[in-house]
Design a protein that fits this description.
binds heme C; alpha+beta
């Protein structure tokens, strides 16, 4: 599911960096192409169109509210989809059906956008707050974010905070509670390439690490955690490597489980419609 948000991230970082530096030096190589199967039909309109299609084609088994029905054995689609963990996985279920079950493929002439609109609709159910019970307290989470958690050192919400991580103002729309929890407990699991860093060892042995801004055959530019920009000619450094792990620490040691739940509840409440 995260793949979908790549463009949002890029746009965000772009704004952030341009603001921070006041320079138009961003001419970065495209990284998005590594994921080929992104849902490009994921707007509010697509969700509505997908919902109408769902009522016609799917509700007789899965129910009008998509919560499943006992008569048909079709499962609840508003929680976790057990047979798929990505958008593309859900796409494949709808496109190919589930062999040996009543879940048949959509008609072969169904256009791709239509299938993706169904995926968008199903996702919208899954992260609909009305379908989710959270144990944490959003208010407690909000204060942890700026106090004990120090999350605001790196993340912006509503225009305040740091720029070393993605803006989280609408993160509740992009990630579901499980994903939010993984982001805090196991940040290396899903790192968007935009947040990979470069570690550069200079000839004198000193090391610079930062987000990759630009790279071509001969040169490299990175921005370090103090927002200082570094430029290197590749033939003038000793070595460089790409670091694909997150610069965000895991919080399993520093926050209690209850505190993590509070932060999940707070972040999940961050969405456009409230
Ligand atoms: C004839 C009844 C029927 C219809 C119509 C139907 N489904 Fe299903 N669907 C099922 C059944 C039964 C399963 C469970 C199969 C299994 O895993 O054993 C299922 C499973 C699924 C799953 C996987 C759920 C999970 O948790 O892994 C998805 C996603 C899904 N259906 C989406 C759709 C969509 C979208 C449509 C409409 C295009 C649709 N279904 C139409 C019966 C149906
Ligand atoms: C040292 C800087 C830093 C700190 C401190 C930090 N983060 Fe992060 N965070 C990042 C970076 C960089 C990423 C992007 C890479 C990744 O996915 O891990 C990220 C990603 C995330 C994401 C996923 C965002 C998305 O759009 O996928 C969430 C949620 C998040 N952080 C929440 C938190 C919370 C809550 C705290 C405080 C408990 C926190 N972060 C503290 C740097 C930080």
């Amino acid at each position: 599911m995260r793949q979908t948000y790549l463009f949002y991230w890029k746009a965000n970082l772009l704004t952030g960096i341009l603001l921070a530096l006041g320079l138009g030096l961003l001419n970065q190589p495209a990284v998005a192409q590594e994921h080929e199967e992104i849902n490009l039909y994921n707007t509010a309109v697509d969700v509505r169109v997908g919902g109408r299609y769902f009522q016609r084609q799917c509700s007789r088994c899965h129910g009008a509210d998509a919560k499943g029905t006992d008569e048909t054995g079709a499962p609840d689609l508003t929680g976790t989809i057990s047979r798929a963990s990505t958008d593309f996985g859900i796409y494949n279920i709808i496109r190919k059906g589930i062999q040996g079950t009543a879940m048949l493929p959509v008609p072969a002439d169904t256009p791709d956008p239509k299938v993706w609109q169904l995926v968008a609709y199903i996702n919208s159910l899954r992260i609909n707050p009305a379908n989710i019970d959270l144990t944490g307290s959003p208010d407690a989470g909000q204060s942890l974010f700026t106090s004990k958690g120090s999350c605001s050192d790196c993340h912006m919400i509503g225009g305040t905070g740091g720029r070393r991580g993605p803006d989280l103002s609408l993160v509740g729309q992009r990630l579901d509670p499980d994903e939010l929890k993984i982001a805090m407990t196991n940040p290396d699991e899903l790192v968007d390439p935009r947040w990979w860093t470069m570690r550069i060892t200079q000839k004198n042995g000193s090391v610079v690490e930062g987000l990759r801004m630009e790279e071509d055959t001969f040169s490299l530019r990175v921005i370090d955690e103090n927002a200082d920009l570094w430029s290197f000619r590749k033939n003038e450094i000793q070595s460089y490597e790409r670091v694909e792990t997150s610069t965000m620490p895991s919080y399993t040691q520093t926050l209690t489980e209850g505190e993590i739940d509070d932060l999940v509840a707070y972040l999940f409440s961050l969405r456009k419609d409230n």
